[in-house]
Write a structure and sequence with these properties.
Elements lengths: L18 H4 L25 E2 L6 E2 L2 E2 L4 E2 L15 E6 L10 H7 L4 E5 L11 E4 L6 E2 H8 L31 H14 L8 E6 L5 H5 L2 H4 L3 E3 L21 H16 L14 H13 L11
Parallel strand pairs: 5-6, 5-9, 7-9, 7-10, 8-10
Antiparallel strand pairs: 1-2, 3-4
Length: 301
């Protein structure tokens, strides 16, 4: 009797688990976001010098966290309701990390540190966004840590609640000093809330690398907050990790949207922070154009 030879299981390529593959039928998965047009990025020369370190860069310097001069007046800038620190693993590739996006688009509120360099958080009210063992949902943290939430600070004109939806650089390009001051005051006043924290920390690394940073006693002692689950569109798929493991810029974005909905339950979110995904959207579409999943050999039978 002839032996029956078992069929070898069909090989599954790693790229088949990436968002580039799973969203290959969708024309633009990011079209639902209110993100400024980034078409002008296509018109840039090949590379130009960083205005600070003078190294050759394409769109922005991922070491100095500034855009190149050709686009600095065209990209959106955002004011955030809370200060954000990003602690980046030293082996995380600078040019591939999305933490630079946040530091460039919200320069007044985001700082990036390379581990083991980071501030002393002992005298600040700081939370860590990380799915640790004892992590809480943000809404539960608010409920447990805000005994007398100042609702008076939330009573304001809904039409003037945010100015992140103003035209790009509207506060920066005007020559009228009074207009600049008024706009800056509006931004500060819109975020005059009594949060149970002063600062939010994010870890920027692969999931394998997080152990080194999260193992630090100062980091591990921070209250841990988990985000509501969202499907990532990050093109750098990480092996054996579910699709809801977000990139750094996605995590920051979804945190801010969640914060908005907790603080302003009666005010619909209108895309005030969507422009944090400005570079993310451009690069997502750029990579998917360069690496068409329908043509890549890795996708073929």
């Amino acid at each position: 009797m002839a032996s029956v030879q078992k069929e070898k299981p069909k090989r599954k390529y790693l790229i088949e688990s990436s968002c580039l593959f799973t969203n290959r039928e969708c024309a633009d998965p990011l079209s639902k976001f209110s993100i400024n047009s980034c078409d002008f990025l296509e018109e840039l020369p090949e590379r130009s010098a960083c205005p600070r370190c003078y190294k050759s860069r394409r769109y922005y310097c991922y070491n100095c966290y500034v855009p190149v001069d050709e686009i600095k007046e065209k990209i959106p800038y955002l004011k955030l309701p809370v200060k954000i620190d990003i602690i980046k693993h030293p082996r995380e590739v600078d040019g591939k990390s999305t933490s630079a996006h946040a530091a460039i688009l919200a320069p007044d509120d985001v700082k990036v540190y390379v581990y083991p360099e980071f501030p002393d958080y002992a005298k600040e009210k700081v939370i860590l966004i990380f799915p640790g063992k004892n992590a809480m949902h943000l809404s539960d943290y608010f409920e447990e840590n805000t005994s007398k939430f100042d609702q008076g600070n939330l009573e304001c004109d809904k039409n003037k609640l945010f100015c992140n939806n103003l035209p790009p650089n509207s506060c920066r390009k005007t020559s009228n000093a009074e207009e600049v001051t008024n706009c800056q005051n509006m931004q500060r006043n819109q975020f005059n809330h009594n949060f149970p924290f002063d600062k939010v920390v994010f870890i920027d690394s692969t999931w394998k690398q997080t152990k080194r940073i999260y193992g630090n006693e100062c980091i591990r002692s921070l209250p841990c907050i988990m985000l509501t689950s969202h499907r990532s569109l990050f093109w750098r798929h990480q092996r054996n990790k579910p699709p809801n493991y977000l990139s750094t810029i996605e995590a920051i974005y979804y945190f801010l949207v969640e914060l908005h909905r907790i603080v302003h339950p009666d005010v619909a979110y209108r895309g005030e922070y969507d422009n944090l995904l400005f570079f993310f959207k451009y690069m997502y579409n750029k990579i998917r154009t360069l690496y068409d999943p329908k043509k890549l050999r890795a996708y073929q039978d």
